[in-house]
Amino acid sequence: MAKKIYIGKLSDKTTEDQLREAFTKIGEVMSLRIVRTTNFVKNSNYGYVQMDSMESTKTAIKELNNSTLDGSNIKVMEAHYLDQDIKRRSYFQKRKR
């Protein structure tokens, strides 16, 4: 099963087509979306891409992290779901006791 990829620090001008073009060079894009933030921090938009395979996912992270897209140095990493983070935190809190 393919994992979702988180893309941070997207430019305000970056479009879904531009994001799709960057990731399609590596593999087939199954789904994609950009989240536009309403705060006033430059390049605070982010997005998610799901590739067709784990191999494509790993390659995309390796090749596109810290690359430039639409004038912005983007951060590309595996997406973490909120419930995973909560489970991880509760595990470590129990271990500290």
Automatic annotation (TrEMBL):
<dbReference type="InterPro" id="IPR012677">
    <property type="entry name" value="Nucleotide-bd_a/b_plait_sf"/>
</dbReference>
<protein>
    <submittedName>
        <fullName>RNA-binding protein</fullName>
    </submittedName>
</protein>
<dbReference type="GO" id="GO:0003723">
    <property type="term" value="F:RNA binding"/>
</dbReference>
<dbReference type="InterPro" id="IPR000504">
    <property type="entry name" value="RRM_dom"/>
</dbReference>
<dbReference type="Pfam" id="PF00076">
    <property type="entry name" value="RRM_1"/>
</dbReference>
<dbReference type="InterPro" id="IPR035979">
    <property type="entry name" value="RBD_domain_sf"/>
</dbReference>
<feature type="domain" description="RRM">
    <location>
        <begin position="3"/>
        <end position="81"/>
    </location>
</feature>
